[in-house]
Design brief:
Layout: H1 2-23, H2 27-53, H3 62-78, E1 87-91, E2 98-101, E3 105-109, H4 110-115, H5 119-134, H6 137-145, H7 148-155, H8 161-173, H9 178-194, H10 200-210, H11 214-217, H12 229-240, H13 253-264
Parallel strand pairs: 1-3
Antiparallel strand pairs: 2-3
């Protein structure tokens, strides 16, 4: 009985200590900081995308845009992701690349789509990049490598165009920390499984590009900035074994074939 009483006193004391600690937090200040960070991210996304697109050729072909959008919409819908937040931009470029900018901007190069043997491989890469966005990896990377004060100064117009281009290059041509890449890989598998898209081709894509295919080497970017590709692929395969996979392709085969033909023209 004495032990029960002591445990009860301990629980009550812990409750009041926790309550007292929470009372000391200036929640208004915390929420204002969070709101300020969100506004900074939104502004950065606008600035980076506006700067990037000036030097690139965007694909305006509606068939291409609608087809890729179908994949993204399935992924977002089945994973309770705000579809309007994910802003897809398809760039006409042979380079095999895709990357995320702040505030949900996702850039996909046509070379990446053409390097995908099937829609599942493309879906895997898209899920990986959406995972970076949903897990807030983009801002974490920028704050760590650039600094929040510099990022805020960019939004106020205190940095020149070269500085902005440098930040964009950092996001488009360098990997996240290994732990963040792993987290994005596994989250991508979750997204694919929930969307009823076979996740194993995502691992196949990593295996394929890790083989240093001479025909593809000159176009590589995405895979070269994501080190240890073979190890990542193996980890994805192992993680897939813990999942119950039901596959239901987003696109009809003819639709996928049409997408590739439109990009080759």
């Amino acid at each position: 009985m004495k032990r029960v009483i002591v445990q009860g006193i301990f629980i009550i004391a812990s409750f009041f200590i926790t309550w007292f600690a929470l009372q000391q937090i200036d929640w208004v200040k915390v929420l204002k900081i969070k709101q300020a960070t969100q506004k900074t991210e939104e502004k950065l996304g606008e600035i980076f995308w506006e700067t990037f697109k000036k030097s690139e050729k965007l694909i305006k072909n509606q068939t291409v845009k609608n087809t890729v959008d179908s994949i993204v919409t399935r992924i977002c819908t089945e994973n309770d992701i705000d579809r309007d937040f994910i802003k897809i931009h398809i760039v006409d470029k042979d380079e095999i690349n895709a990357f995320a900018l702040p505030s949900g901007h996702l850039v996909i190069f046509s070379g990446l789509i053409l390097a995908s043997d099937n829609q599942e491989e493309l879906s895997g890469v898209i899920c990986h990049e959406i995972a970076h966005i949903e897990l807030n990896h983009v801002m974490k990377k920028l704050v760590k490598e650039i600094g929040l004060s510099v990022l805020i100064s960019i939004t106020t117009g205190n940095n020149n165009g070269e500085a902005i281009k440098g930040v964009i290059k950092l996001l488009s041509s360098s990997a996240f920390d290994r732990s963040l890449e792993r987290e994005a890989d596994l989250k991508a598998v979750d997204f694919l499984v929930n969307a009823r898209i076979d996740p194993e081709p995502f691992a196949d894509f990593l295996y394929k590009l890790a083989d240093n295919n001479p025909e593809m080497m000159k176009y590589l970017s995405w895979i070269s900035t994501h080190p240890e590709s073979k190890e990542r692929a193996e980890e994805i395969i192992e993680y897939c074994k813990t999942k119950e996979i039901v596959s239901n392709p987003v696109l009809a085969q003819q639709t996928w074939d049409n997408l590739l033909e439109e990009l080759k023209d």
